[in-house]
Amino acid sequence: MPKDFVDPGHPAIYGDNAGLTVSGCDFTGFNRNHIVLSPKSKSTIVSATRFLGGLQLTNQAHGKVVISANIEE
Fold first, then answer.
1. Who contacts 72 (Cβ-Cβ below 8 Å, separation ≥6)?
2. For the chain, which ranges sit under pLDDT 50?
3. Helices H, strands E: what count in the chain?
């Protein structure tokens, strides 16, 4: 993300169907809602990822969500 980019209304990732795996990503360039899971989302894994200010996840899904081995910077 460019340093002056402002768009607080949209997450970096929007999970809207089936399964989602986020692994080995770097979200340290911005501090906002990283992941939004819609009610249609199924299983989700978030692992080995770096987040500025910690993971910001909005979970509207009914499926299982596993979060492990992430780093807050």
1. 51, 53, 54, 55
2. 1
3. 0, 9
